Amino acid sequence: MNLHDLQSALATTLKTGRTVLGLDKNDPNLPPMASGGDPVIGHMREFSRDPVGVMDRGRREHGEIFRLNLAGNGIVIILGPQGNEAVFRAPDEVLNPKEAYRLMTPVFGKGIAYDAEPHIFDEQLGFLYPALTASRMKTYAQIMNEEAELYLETRMGESGTVDLLDMMNELTMYISARCLLGPEFRGALNREFVDLYQTMEGALIPLAFFFPYLPIPKFKARDKARAKLVGMLTDVIANRRARGFRGEDFLQTFMDAKYKDGRPLTDDEITGLLLTVVFAGHHTSGTLSAWTGINLLAHPQYLPAVLEEQKRVYANGRAPSFDTLKELEVMERVIMEAERMYPPIVMMMRKVIKPFEYGGYTLQDGTMIMVSPQVSQRLPEWFKDPNRYDPDRFGPGREEHKQHPYVLTSFGGGKHKCIGLHFAYMQIKALWSVILRKYDLELASPLYTPSYDFLIAGPRHPCLVKFQRKAEAVVEVPRLTTPTHVQ
Protein backbone atom coordinates (compact mmCIF):
# COMPACT_ATOMS: atom_id res chain seq x y z
CA MET A 1 0.00 0.00 0.00
CA ASN A 2 1.48 3.34 -1.03
CA LEU A 3 1.42 6.70 0.73
CA HIS A 4 -1.39 8.03 -1.46
CA ASP A 5 -3.62 5.11 -0.50
CA LEU A 6 -2.90 5.66 3.18
CA GLN A 7 -3.71 9.35 2.89
CA SER A 8 -6.99 8.49 1.16
CA ALA A 9 -7.85 6.03 3.91
CA LEU A 10 -7.20 8.57 6.63
CA ALA A 11 -9.19 11.25 4.79
CA THR A 12 -12.12 8.85 4.52
CA THR A 13 -11.85 8.01 8.21
CA LEU A 14 -12.13 11.67 9.14
CA LYS A 15 -14.84 12.45 6.58
CA THR A 16 -17.11 9.58 7.57
CA GLY A 17 -16.57 10.02 11.29
CA ARG A 18 -15.42 6.43 11.82
CA THR A 19 -14.79 5.77 15.50
CA VAL A 20 -11.41 4.77 16.83
CA LEU A 21 -12.37 1.60 18.66
CA GLY A 22 -10.43 0.63 21.73
CA LEU A 23 -7.07 2.16 20.87
CA ASP A 24 -6.08 2.96 24.45
CA LYS A 25 -3.09 0.68 24.91
CA ASN A 26 -3.68 0.37 28.64
CA ASP A 27 -7.43 -0.30 28.64
CA PRO A 28 -7.82 -3.29 31.06
CA ASN A 29 -11.18 -4.18 29.50
CA LEU A 30 -9.59 -4.94 26.15
CA PRO A 31 -6.81 -7.30 25.05
CA PRO A 32 -3.32 -5.74 25.10
CA MET A 33 -2.02 -3.81 22.09
CA ALA A 34 0.90 -5.20 20.09
CA SER A 35 4.05 -3.13 20.16
CA GLY A 36 5.18 -0.83 17.38
CA GLY A 37 3.07 1.20 15.03
CA ASP A 38 2.94 4.76 13.76
CA PRO A 39 1.28 7.40 15.99
CA VAL A 40 -1.22 8.20 13.20
CA ILE A 41 -1.80 5.03 11.14
CA GLY A 42 -0.81 2.51 13.79
CA HIS A 43 0.33 -0.85 12.44
CA MET A 44 -1.26 -0.32 9.02
CA ARG A 45 1.86 0.17 6.93
CA GLU A 46 3.71 -2.75 8.53
CA PHE A 47 0.57 -4.90 8.36
CA SER A 48 0.17 -4.21 4.64
CA ARG A 49 3.72 -5.41 4.00
CA ASP A 50 3.82 -8.39 6.35
CA PRO A 51 0.57 -9.15 8.23
CA VAL A 52 1.87 -12.53 9.40
CA GLY A 53 4.99 -10.98 10.92
CA VAL A 54 2.96 -8.37 12.83
CA MET A 55 0.50 -10.93 14.16
CA ASP A 56 3.25 -13.34 15.14
CA ARG A 57 4.98 -10.55 17.08
CA GLY A 58 1.74 -9.82 18.91
CA ARG A 59 1.40 -13.53 19.72
CA ARG A 60 4.92 -13.71 21.14
CA GLU A 61 4.30 -10.61 23.23
CA HIS A 62 0.80 -11.30 24.53
CA GLY A 63 -0.34 -14.82 23.68
CA GLU A 64 -3.28 -15.78 21.53
CA ILE A 65 -5.45 -12.67 21.93
CA PHE A 66 -4.28 -9.07 21.42
CA ARG A 67 -5.03 -5.92 19.39
CA LEU A 68 -3.67 -4.05 16.41
CA ASN A 69 -4.34 -0.47 15.33
CA LEU A 70 -4.97 -0.45 11.57
CA ALA A 71 -5.41 3.16 10.42
CA GLY A 72 -7.68 4.00 13.33
CA ASN A 73 -9.46 0.65 13.41
CA GLY A 74 -8.93 -1.37 16.56
CA ILE A 75 -8.72 -5.02 15.47
CA VAL A 76 -8.71 -7.93 17.92
CA ILE A 77 -6.56 -10.86 16.82
CA ILE A 78 -7.52 -14.33 18.10
CA LEU A 79 -5.21 -17.26 17.39
CA GLY A 80 -5.02 -21.00 18.00
CA PRO A 81 -7.48 -23.88 17.54
CA GLN A 82 -9.63 -22.92 20.55
CA GLY A 83 -9.87 -19.36 19.30
CA ASN A 84 -10.65 -20.55 15.79
CA GLU A 85 -13.44 -22.73 17.11
CA ALA A 86 -14.93 -19.93 19.20
CA VAL A 87 -14.95 -17.57 16.21
CA PHE A 88 -16.09 -19.99 13.51
CA ARG A 89 -18.80 -21.61 15.61
CA ALA A 90 -20.29 -18.33 16.82
CA PRO A 91 -23.69 -17.66 15.20
CA ASP A 92 -23.89 -14.91 12.57
CA GLU A 93 -26.02 -12.79 14.86
CA VAL A 94 -23.05 -12.62 17.27
CA LEU A 95 -20.05 -12.61 14.91
CA ASN A 96 -21.09 -11.45 11.47
CA PRO A 97 -18.98 -12.19 8.36
CA LYS A 98 -21.12 -9.92 6.15
CA GLU A 99 -19.93 -6.78 7.89
CA ALA A 100 -16.32 -7.97 7.80
CA TYR A 101 -16.23 -8.87 4.11
CA ARG A 102 -17.48 -5.67 2.53
CA LEU A 103 -14.37 -5.83 0.33
CA MET A 104 -15.95 -8.68 -1.66
CA THR A 105 -19.18 -6.84 -2.47
CA PRO A 106 -17.64 -4.81 -5.33
CA VAL A 107 -16.30 -8.11 -6.72
CA PHE A 108 -19.24 -10.48 -6.30
CA GLY A 109 -22.03 -7.90 -6.46
CA LYS A 110 -24.84 -6.61 -4.29
CA GLY A 111 -26.92 -9.27 -2.57
CA ILE A 112 -24.42 -12.06 -3.33
CA ALA A 113 -22.66 -14.26 -0.78
CA TYR A 114 -21.66 -12.25 2.31
CA ASP A 115 -23.59 -9.21 1.08
CA ALA A 116 -26.86 -11.15 1.14
CA GLU A 117 -29.13 -11.54 4.14
CA PRO A 118 -28.12 -14.65 6.14
CA HIS A 119 -31.10 -16.77 5.01
CA ILE A 120 -30.52 -15.79 1.38
CA PHE A 121 -26.80 -16.56 1.69
CA ASP A 122 -27.69 -19.99 3.06
CA GLU A 123 -29.95 -20.62 0.07
CA GLN A 124 -27.23 -19.46 -2.33
CA LEU A 125 -24.78 -21.88 -0.74
CA GLY A 126 -27.39 -24.59 -1.16
CA PHE A 127 -27.44 -23.96 -4.90
CA LEU A 128 -23.85 -25.24 -5.06
CA TYR A 129 -24.51 -28.75 -3.76
CA PRO A 130 -26.04 -30.18 -6.97
CA ALA A 131 -22.85 -29.10 -8.76
CA LEU A 132 -20.69 -31.03 -6.26
CA THR A 133 -22.34 -34.46 -6.40
CA ALA A 134 -20.21 -37.56 -6.94
CA SER A 135 -21.33 -37.85 -10.57
CA ARG A 136 -20.37 -34.23 -11.28
CA MET A 137 -17.04 -34.66 -9.48
CA LYS A 138 -16.25 -37.61 -11.74
CA THR A 139 -16.85 -35.37 -14.74
CA TYR A 140 -14.67 -32.63 -13.25
CA ALA A 141 -11.84 -35.11 -12.58
CA GLN A 142 -11.76 -36.01 -16.26
CA ILE A 143 -11.77 -32.33 -17.25
CA MET A 144 -8.90 -31.57 -14.86
CA ASN A 145 -6.81 -34.34 -16.38
CA GLU A 146 -7.61 -33.26 -19.95
CA GLU A 147 -6.70 -29.64 -19.27
CA ALA A 148 -3.39 -30.63 -17.65
CA GLU A 149 -2.52 -32.93 -20.57
CA LEU A 150 -3.48 -30.23 -23.06
CA TYR A 151 -1.37 -27.57 -21.38
CA LEU A 152 1.73 -29.73 -21.13
CA GLU A 153 1.59 -30.96 -24.71
CA THR A 154 0.84 -27.60 -26.32
CA ARG A 155 2.63 -25.18 -24.04
CA MET A 156 5.58 -26.87 -22.34
CA GLY A 157 7.57 -28.75 -24.95
CA GLU A 158 10.58 -30.90 -24.12
CA SER A 159 12.41 -28.60 -21.74
CA GLY A 160 12.58 -25.04 -20.52
CA THR A 161 11.69 -22.74 -17.65
CA VAL A 162 8.23 -21.70 -16.52
CA ASP A 163 6.85 -19.42 -13.81
CA LEU A 164 5.04 -21.96 -11.65
CA LEU A 165 2.54 -19.54 -10.12
CA ASP A 166 1.55 -18.13 -13.51
CA MET A 167 1.27 -21.63 -14.91
CA MET A 168 -0.94 -22.89 -12.07
CA ASN A 169 -3.17 -19.81 -12.13
CA GLU A 170 -3.63 -20.23 -15.87
CA LEU A 171 -4.34 -23.95 -15.63
CA THR A 172 -6.87 -23.53 -12.85
CA MET A 173 -8.52 -20.75 -14.85
CA TYR A 174 -9.02 -23.13 -17.79
CA ILE A 175 -10.40 -25.78 -15.44
CA SER A 176 -12.69 -23.25 -13.78
CA ALA A 177 -13.92 -22.12 -17.18
CA ARG A 178 -14.98 -25.65 -18.13
CA CYS A 179 -16.21 -26.93 -14.76
CA LEU A 180 -17.87 -23.74 -13.57
CA LEU A 181 -18.82 -21.76 -16.67
CA GLY A 182 -19.23 -24.51 -19.25
CA PRO A 183 -17.56 -25.77 -22.44
CA GLU A 184 -18.75 -22.92 -24.64
CA PHE A 185 -17.10 -20.38 -22.36
CA ARG A 186 -13.89 -22.43 -22.18
CA GLY A 187 -13.81 -22.56 -25.97
CA ALA A 188 -14.11 -18.79 -26.19
CA LEU A 189 -11.78 -18.03 -23.28
CA ASN A 190 -9.34 -15.33 -24.30
CA ARG A 191 -6.66 -13.16 -22.82
CA GLU A 192 -9.14 -10.32 -22.24
CA PHE A 193 -11.12 -12.36 -19.74
CA VAL A 194 -7.95 -13.41 -17.89
CA ASP A 195 -6.67 -9.82 -17.79
CA LEU A 196 -10.01 -8.46 -16.55
CA TYR A 197 -10.23 -11.12 -13.89
CA GLN A 198 -6.68 -10.42 -12.70
CA THR A 199 -7.48 -6.70 -12.56
CA MET A 200 -10.45 -7.44 -10.34
CA GLU A 201 -8.42 -9.73 -8.09
CA GLY A 202 -5.64 -7.13 -7.94
CA ALA A 203 -7.93 -4.83 -5.95
CA LEU A 204 -8.14 -7.31 -3.07
CA ILE A 205 -5.46 -5.61 -1.02
CA PRO A 206 -5.45 -5.28 2.82
CA LEU A 207 -6.77 -1.71 2.55
CA ALA A 208 -9.96 -3.07 0.93
CA PHE A 209 -10.97 -4.71 4.22
CA PHE A 210 -11.55 -1.28 5.70
CA PHE A 211 -12.11 1.08 2.75
CA PRO A 212 -13.40 -0.95 -0.24
CA TYR A 213 -14.80 2.06 -2.08
CA LEU A 214 -11.90 4.50 -1.87
CA PRO A 215 -11.48 6.38 -5.18
CA ILE A 216 -8.02 4.94 -5.82
CA PRO A 217 -6.84 3.57 -9.21
CA LYS A 218 -6.96 -0.11 -8.19
CA PHE A 219 -10.59 0.11 -7.09
CA LYS A 220 -11.66 2.13 -10.13
CA ALA A 221 -10.03 -0.46 -12.41
CA ARG A 222 -11.76 -3.24 -10.43
CA ASP A 223 -15.20 -1.75 -11.06
CA LYS A 224 -14.59 -1.32 -14.80
CA ALA A 225 -13.24 -4.87 -15.10
CA ARG A 226 -16.22 -6.34 -13.28
CA ALA A 227 -18.68 -4.56 -15.56
CA LYS A 228 -16.98 -6.05 -18.62
CA LEU A 229 -16.84 -9.54 -17.08
CA VAL A 230 -20.54 -9.42 -16.23
CA GLY A 231 -21.23 -8.51 -19.85
CA MET A 232 -19.27 -11.54 -21.06
CA LEU A 233 -21.05 -13.90 -18.68
CA THR A 234 -24.47 -12.48 -19.54
CA ASP A 235 -23.78 -13.19 -23.21
CA VAL A 236 -22.96 -16.83 -22.39
CA ILE A 237 -26.23 -17.19 -20.43
CA ALA A 238 -28.27 -15.66 -23.26
CA ASN A 239 -26.56 -17.85 -25.85
CA ARG A 240 -27.22 -21.02 -23.85
CA ARG A 241 -30.88 -20.15 -23.47
CA ALA A 242 -31.22 -19.34 -27.17
CA ARG A 243 -29.68 -22.67 -28.21
CA GLY A 244 -31.48 -24.72 -25.58
CA PHE A 245 -28.12 -26.15 -24.51
CA ARG A 246 -27.78 -27.81 -21.09
CA GLY A 247 -24.37 -28.31 -19.51
CA GLU A 248 -22.91 -30.35 -16.66
CA ASP A 249 -21.50 -27.33 -14.86
CA PHE A 250 -22.11 -24.70 -12.20
CA LEU A 251 -23.64 -22.32 -14.73
CA GLN A 252 -26.42 -24.78 -15.52
CA THR A 253 -26.94 -25.39 -11.81
CA PHE A 254 -27.51 -21.68 -11.21
CA MET A 255 -29.74 -21.32 -14.28
CA ASP A 256 -31.95 -24.16 -12.97
CA ALA A 257 -31.94 -23.04 -9.31
CA LYS A 258 -34.87 -21.45 -7.53
CA TYR A 259 -35.19 -19.86 -4.12
CA LYS A 260 -37.51 -21.45 -1.58
CA ASP A 261 -40.27 -19.04 -2.59
CA GLY A 262 -40.10 -20.35 -6.15
CA ARG A 263 -38.27 -17.37 -7.65
CA PRO A 264 -35.54 -18.18 -10.18
CA LEU A 265 -32.22 -16.41 -10.03
CA THR A 266 -31.86 -13.19 -11.99
CA ASP A 267 -29.03 -12.84 -14.49
CA ASP A 268 -27.30 -10.49 -12.04
CA GLU A 269 -27.47 -13.16 -9.34
CA ILE A 270 -26.23 -15.86 -11.71
CA THR A 271 -23.27 -13.79 -12.83
CA GLY A 272 -22.50 -12.75 -9.25
CA LEU A 273 -22.52 -16.34 -8.04
CA LEU A 274 -20.39 -17.41 -11.00
CA LEU A 275 -17.80 -14.79 -10.13
CA THR A 276 -17.94 -16.03 -6.54
CA VAL A 277 -17.27 -19.67 -7.42
CA VAL A 278 -14.63 -18.77 -10.02
CA PHE A 279 -12.80 -16.81 -7.32
CA ALA A 280 -13.13 -19.69 -4.87
CA GLY A 281 -12.24 -22.36 -7.42
CA HIS A 282 -9.43 -20.63 -9.24
CA HIS A 283 -7.02 -18.41 -7.37
CA THR A 284 -6.83 -20.25 -4.05
CA SER A 285 -6.31 -23.55 -5.91
CA GLY A 286 -3.74 -22.02 -8.25
CA THR A 287 -1.80 -20.55 -5.35
CA LEU A 288 -1.92 -23.72 -3.25
CA SER A 289 -0.87 -25.75 -6.32
CA ALA A 290 2.21 -23.55 -6.70
CA TRP A 291 3.12 -23.82 -3.01
CA THR A 292 2.63 -27.61 -3.19
CA GLY A 293 5.18 -27.92 -5.98
CA ILE A 294 7.66 -25.42 -4.57
CA ASN A 295 7.81 -27.11 -1.18
CA LEU A 296 8.02 -30.62 -2.61
CA LEU A 297 10.85 -29.67 -4.98
CA ALA A 298 12.65 -27.81 -2.19
CA HIS A 299 12.56 -31.00 -0.08
CA PRO A 300 13.36 -33.75 -2.62
CA GLN A 301 13.63 -36.43 0.06
CA TYR A 302 9.82 -36.61 -0.01
CA LEU A 303 9.58 -36.90 -3.81
CA PRO A 304 10.32 -40.66 -4.19
CA ALA A 305 7.29 -41.62 -2.10
CA VAL A 306 5.07 -39.40 -4.25
CA LEU A 307 6.42 -40.87 -7.48
CA GLU A 308 6.15 -44.43 -6.19
CA GLU A 309 2.51 -43.82 -5.31
CA GLN A 310 1.89 -42.57 -8.84
CA LYS A 311 3.37 -45.75 -10.30
CA ARG A 312 1.34 -47.95 -7.99
CA VAL A 313 -2.01 -46.19 -8.45
CA TYR A 314 -1.66 -45.92 -12.22
CA ALA A 315 -0.20 -49.41 -12.76
CA ASN A 316 -1.64 -51.73 -15.40
CA GLY A 317 -2.85 -48.89 -17.56
CA ARG A 318 -5.29 -47.37 -15.07
CA ALA A 319 -6.48 -44.00 -16.31
CA PRO A 320 -6.69 -40.88 -14.10
CA SER A 321 -10.18 -40.61 -12.62
CA PHE A 322 -12.16 -39.47 -9.61
CA ASP A 323 -11.46 -42.84 -7.95
CA THR A 324 -7.72 -42.93 -8.63
CA LEU A 325 -7.27 -39.38 -7.38
CA LYS A 326 -8.87 -40.38 -4.07
CA GLU A 327 -6.21 -43.07 -3.68
CA LEU A 328 -3.32 -40.57 -3.76
CA GLU A 329 -2.86 -40.35 0.01
CA VAL A 330 0.85 -39.43 -0.07
CA MET A 331 0.10 -36.60 -2.49
CA GLU A 332 -2.72 -35.45 -0.23
CA ARG A 333 -0.32 -35.15 2.70
CA VAL A 334 2.03 -33.08 0.54
CA ILE A 335 -0.84 -30.71 -0.27
CA MET A 336 -1.88 -30.54 3.39
CA GLU A 337 1.61 -29.54 4.48
CA ALA A 338 1.75 -26.80 1.85
CA GLU A 339 -1.67 -25.62 3.05
CA ARG A 340 -0.52 -25.64 6.67
CA MET A 341 2.66 -23.67 6.05
CA TYR A 342 1.45 -21.34 3.27
CA PRO A 343 -2.35 -21.04 3.34
CA PRO A 344 -3.58 -18.93 0.42
CA ILE A 345 -5.77 -16.85 2.74
CA VAL A 346 -3.72 -15.71 5.73
CA MET A 347 -6.49 -13.85 7.60
CA MET A 348 -10.26 -14.06 8.04
CA MET A 349 -12.52 -11.55 9.76
CA ARG A 350 -15.78 -11.19 11.67
CA LYS A 351 -17.59 -8.20 13.16
CA VAL A 352 -19.06 -8.39 16.65
CA ILE A 353 -22.82 -7.75 16.56
CA LYS A 354 -23.59 -8.88 20.11
CA PRO A 355 -21.11 -9.06 23.03
CA PHE A 356 -18.65 -11.90 22.49
CA GLU A 357 -16.60 -13.42 25.30
CA TYR A 358 -13.23 -15.01 24.80
CA GLY A 359 -9.97 -15.23 26.73
CA GLY A 360 -11.35 -13.39 29.74
CA TYR A 361 -12.47 -10.39 27.65
CA THR A 362 -15.92 -9.29 26.57
CA LEU A 363 -15.74 -7.75 23.11
CA GLN A 364 -18.52 -5.27 22.47
CA ASP A 365 -20.56 -4.78 19.31
CA GLY A 366 -18.69 -3.05 16.52
CA THR A 367 -15.38 -4.75 17.34
CA MET A 368 -13.60 -6.35 14.38
CA ILE A 369 -12.07 -9.78 15.01
CA MET A 370 -9.39 -11.41 12.88
CA VAL A 371 -8.09 -14.98 12.88
CA SER A 372 -5.02 -16.13 10.95
CA PRO A 373 -4.59 -19.66 9.61
CA GLN A 374 -0.92 -19.08 8.81
CA VAL A 375 0.00 -17.96 12.33
CA SER A 376 -2.21 -20.53 14.06
CA GLN A 377 -0.97 -23.38 11.88
CA ARG A 378 2.61 -22.79 12.98
CA LEU A 379 2.04 -22.91 16.73
CA PRO A 380 4.59 -25.27 18.33
CA GLU A 381 2.10 -26.51 20.91
CA TRP A 382 0.06 -28.07 18.08
CA PHE A 383 2.60 -28.91 15.39
CA LYS A 384 5.98 -30.45 16.15
CA ASP A 385 8.80 -28.29 14.78
CA PRO A 386 6.17 -26.16 13.00
CA ASN A 387 8.52 -24.27 10.67
CA ARG A 388 9.92 -27.49 9.22
CA TYR A 389 8.35 -28.98 6.10
CA ASP A 390 7.17 -32.47 7.03
CA PRO A 391 4.21 -33.99 5.14
CA ASP A 392 4.53 -37.16 7.20
CA ARG A 393 3.12 -35.27 10.20
CA PHE A 394 -0.29 -36.06 8.68
CA GLY A 395 0.47 -39.75 8.11
CA PRO A 396 -0.52 -42.87 10.07
CA GLY A 397 0.70 -42.86 13.65
CA ARG A 398 1.10 -39.08 13.83
CA GLU A 399 -1.92 -37.30 12.32
CA GLU A 400 -1.21 -33.98 14.00
CA HIS A 401 -4.20 -32.42 12.24
CA LYS A 402 -6.57 -34.61 14.24
CA GLN A 403 -5.61 -33.14 17.64
CA HIS A 404 -8.35 -30.54 17.34
CA PRO A 405 -11.11 -30.02 14.74
CA TYR A 406 -10.03 -26.41 14.21
CA VAL A 407 -6.27 -26.86 14.02
CA LEU A 408 -6.32 -26.44 10.21
CA THR A 409 -8.56 -23.61 9.03
CA SER A 410 -7.13 -22.55 5.67
CA PHE A 411 -10.55 -23.16 4.13
CA GLY A 412 -12.47 -21.65 7.03
CA GLY A 413 -14.55 -23.49 9.57
CA GLY A 414 -18.04 -23.97 10.97
CA LYS A 415 -21.03 -23.25 8.74
CA HIS A 416 -18.93 -21.04 6.48
CA LYS A 417 -16.23 -23.61 5.75
CA CYS A 418 -15.50 -23.72 2.03
CA ILE A 419 -17.66 -26.43 0.48
CA GLY A 420 -15.29 -26.56 -2.49
CA LEU A 421 -12.44 -28.00 -0.39
CA HIS A 422 -12.65 -31.45 -2.02
CA PHE A 423 -12.86 -29.87 -5.50
CA ALA A 424 -9.67 -27.91 -4.74
CA TYR A 425 -7.76 -30.92 -3.47
CA MET A 426 -8.87 -33.05 -6.41
CA GLN A 427 -7.75 -30.34 -8.82
CA ILE A 428 -4.29 -30.02 -7.25
CA LYS A 429 -3.85 -33.80 -7.21
CA ALA A 430 -4.87 -34.03 -10.87
CA LEU A 431 -2.48 -31.30 -12.01
CA TRP A 432 0.55 -32.57 -10.12
CA SER A 433 -0.14 -36.20 -11.06
CA VAL A 434 0.12 -35.35 -14.76
CA ILE A 435 3.12 -33.04 -14.30
CA LEU A 436 5.16 -35.42 -12.17
CA ARG A 437 4.51 -38.40 -14.44
CA LYS A 438 5.75 -36.47 -17.50
CA TYR A 439 8.51 -34.16 -16.28
CA ASP A 440 11.56 -33.94 -14.09
CA LEU A 441 11.52 -30.58 -12.30
CA GLU A 442 14.03 -28.34 -10.56
CA LEU A 443 13.62 -25.04 -8.75
CA ALA A 444 15.19 -22.15 -10.65
CA SER A 445 14.59 -19.03 -8.52
CA PRO A 446 16.97 -18.06 -5.71
CA LEU A 447 14.21 -17.65 -3.14
CA TYR A 448 10.50 -18.43 -2.77
CA THR A 449 8.77 -16.19 -0.26
CA PRO A 450 5.09 -15.27 0.20
CA SER A 451 3.73 -11.99 -1.12
CA TYR A 452 1.16 -10.27 1.07
CA ASP A 453 0.30 -7.58 -1.44
CA PHE A 454 -3.10 -9.16 -2.07
CA LEU A 455 -5.76 -11.11 -0.18
CA ILE A 456 -4.41 -14.37 -1.67
CA ALA A 457 -0.82 -14.91 -0.49
CA GLY A 458 1.02 -16.62 -3.30
CA PRO A 459 4.76 -16.98 -3.81
CA ARG A 460 6.46 -13.78 -4.87
CA HIS A 461 7.56 -13.49 -8.49
CA PRO A 462 9.76 -14.72 -10.06
CA CYS A 463 8.63 -18.24 -9.22
CA LEU A 464 10.63 -20.21 -11.76
CA VAL A 465 10.93 -23.96 -12.28
CA LYS A 466 13.05 -25.81 -14.85
CA PHE A 467 11.43 -28.76 -16.58
CA GLN A 468 12.70 -31.68 -18.71
CA ARG A 469 10.42 -34.28 -20.24
CA LYS A 470 11.06 -37.77 -18.93
CA ALA A 471 12.37 -40.21 -21.49
CA GLU A 472 9.60 -42.68 -20.72
CA ALA A 473 6.79 -40.09 -20.73
CA VAL A 474 3.97 -40.91 -23.12
CA VAL A 475 2.98 -38.09 -25.45
CA GLU A 476 -0.80 -37.88 -25.76
CA VAL A 477 -2.62 -35.91 -28.42
CA PRO A 478 -4.54 -33.03 -26.77
CA ARG A 479 -8.15 -32.33 -27.64
CA LEU A 480 -7.76 -28.58 -28.03
CA THR A 481 -5.04 -26.15 -29.00
CA THR A 482 -3.99 -22.97 -27.26
CA PRO A 483 -1.30 -20.38 -28.06
CA THR A 484 2.15 -20.88 -26.54
CA HIS A 485 3.26 -18.65 -23.65
CA VAL A 486 6.07 -20.51 -21.90
CA GLN A 487 9.56 -19.12 -21.49
What is the topological layout?
Layout: H1 3-16, H2 44-49, H3 51-62, E1 65-70, E2 73-78, H4 81-89, E3 95-96, H5 97-100, H6 105-108, H7 118-126, H8 134-156, E4 159-163, H9 164-181, H10 183-188, H11 191-201, H12 217-243, H13 250-256, H14 267-298, H15 303-313, H16 322-326, H17 329-341, E5 348-352, E6 356-358, E7 361-363, E8 368-371, H18 373-376, H19 421-438, E9 439-443, E10 464-469
Parallel strand pairs: 2-8
Antiparallel strand pairs: 1-2, 3-5, 4-10, 5-8, 6-7, 9-10
Helix pairs in contact: 8-9, 8-19, 9-14, 11-12, 12-14, 13-14, 14-17, 14-19
Count, helices: 19
Question: Quick one: overall form?
Answer: globular
SSE string: HHHEEHEHHHHEHHHHHHHHHEEEEHHEE
Measured between the Cα atoms of the first and last residue, the distance is 30 Å
CATH C-level name of the domain at 116-339 and 413-469: Mainly Alpha
Strand content: 5-15%
Class of secondary structure makeup:
alpha+beta
* Low-confidence runs: 1-21, 475-487
Q: Radius of gyration from the CA trace? A: 23 Å
Spell out the CATH superfamily of the domain at 116-339 and 413-469. Cytochrome P450
User: What's the β-strand tally?
Assistant: 10
Mean pLDDT: 87
CATH architecture of the domain at 116-339 and 413-469: Orthogonal Bundle
* CATH fold-level assignment of the domain at 116-339 and 413-469: Cytochrome p450
Largest pleated sheet: 5 strands, mixed
Q: Strand order, biggest sheet?
A: 1-2-8-5-3
Amount of helix: 40-55%
